[in-house]
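Chain and backbone:
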Amino acid sequence: MSTTAIPNRGVETLVASDILSPNRIRLPRLGASVSVAAAVAISSAPSLLPRSAVTAALFTGIMVALALTVAWAGRRVFGPRRPASLRLRAWTVVAAALISSVALASNMHWQNRLRAAMDVEPVSWSYAVDVTGGALCVALVLCGAGDALRRIFSALGRNRCVALLVTVAALLYTLAVPFVRSTLSASYSASNSAMDDAVAAPTSETRSGGPGSSAPWRTLGREGRAFASGGQDLDTVRTYVGLESAATPDERVALAVSEMERAGAFERSVVVVAIPTGSGWVDENAITGAERTFGGDVATVAVQYSDKPSWATFLFAEDDARRSANAVVRAVATRAAAEPTTPKVVVYGQSLGSVAGSDAYLAVQQNISSLCGAVWAGPPAGSVDTDGAAVLANSSDPVARWSLDLLWSPPDTTTFTIDAPRPPWLPVVGFLQTSVDLLAALDVTSGHGHRYGTDQGEAMARCR
């Protein structure tokens, strides 16, 4: 009886060929592996501020989804190519995993350097696990949603897709956008008017909202009431005019000057014109620093021009801020110059307040001698003139760094105060990282990020 010989290929050869069969193993394309590694490396690059695991996971997941979308679009545009060998794809997956692991470990080390400089609790390896797991979930959800939309659009056809997109865009523009804007505006107005029982009206005649004041306490707005009742020395002059204190911008400026005269502001050696941020907020640290610097011989005035957050005012009503600042600075400086013993006038602004204040200072300083100087804290990149002004900008402040120029050129750091380790600038990457840091610009203590301390007031010492 004859038997058929079976080739002796060896168990190892049989197992290996079976496992490595393309029919058994599905490995990512080269482009997908490279895209994921690049996305993780970019999202893990050094940031300006400590970043929570949730924020890091969202950023990384979004970047991975975008990178995979770009890789898919590239295949659609340039056409499919012959798949790479299984071995090459396997090595690419290993390399991508290694690069991603190194990037995450490096990011964790950088996070702890930042946290040590800012007195924030350090992170452990669980941080990297949370970021990895969260990013994976975000990327899967986004890619799944994208694939579902692609299938829907494919089923509908090009003409129906265009019609659907046009219809949705029209509805958003005509209905959704006005509704959201109206709702937010009403919310901001209600928040501005809401009374806080924990903030009591001042009992000093040197404060707006106090005895004899022509600006009633309830009209000062939330931020104005906090400003007028604040400070350690209640004998200092603090005058504030809110949106509800007078009907028009000109009337508010006139009321501010009248309030200053009533409170004896022009009898002080120094008058600080504080340009508020969009919501009407004036940094208490700055005013406390000024009152300490000048030994209480100082008066501060502020006029509210908006009840909306700075970002909304900056985008939609920046001209209101500029016009208000110009009118207030001009009126106060002119009135101060008429005094026999002319008080020195300092213009102060933080963030959006510095943008509006800078324009006003430049417009008025040439003609009115009572203007002594200006202090700009945390100004948006390239938005203020530094001539005759002291500029305070933390090196970790994303507001002071962010601009479209970050896409291709490093930021100008000549006015920065080094408060934490500084990340190296990289094209595009620096812009993306700084954009994400904007979300946490205020989630730090004074002296870091977009938070400033009493050194704002101390910078006014040149006007003694």
Observations:
- The longest strand covers residues 344-350.
- The chain has two domains: 25-156, 202-463.
- The two ends are 117 Å apart (CA to CA).
- Residues 446 and 452 are 5 Å apart (CA to CA).
